[in-house]
Amino acid sequence: MLEFINVNPNSGDPIYKQLHEQVVRLIVGGQLSAGDELPSVRKIADHFAVNPMTVSRAIGQLVDQGWLERRRGQATKVAQKTVQQTDQQETLLFKAIDQLIQQAKQLDVPQAILSELIKKRWEL
Fold first, then answer.
1. SS3 assignment, position 79
2. Are 21 and 65 in contact (CB under 8 A)?
3. Could you tell me if 70 and 27 lie in one domain?
């Protein structure tokens, strides 16, 4: 799991938010499945050289939102798939699509050309 997450301390987003969003993407994208165990907070913190409280905050939010399950004395696991998680696929894509559209408009790229570019990249 950790190899799929990239934390950038120079990003404008706080590290806990980066961790949160990337774990959600891994779940929604199917790289993490229901029942998969996450490494411990300490192991994640050591891997990214961040404060364990930062990791704990991200994990806590994911648990509160139903993405993860945490039981005393057991590893934190990915929760069973919910309607929220299915809806989240669109939400995650909408953010990326909105950014792409904004960039295309700034570059004065017509919609037809943008669509063609997306089609070409999809077929790679």
1. coil
2. no
3. yes
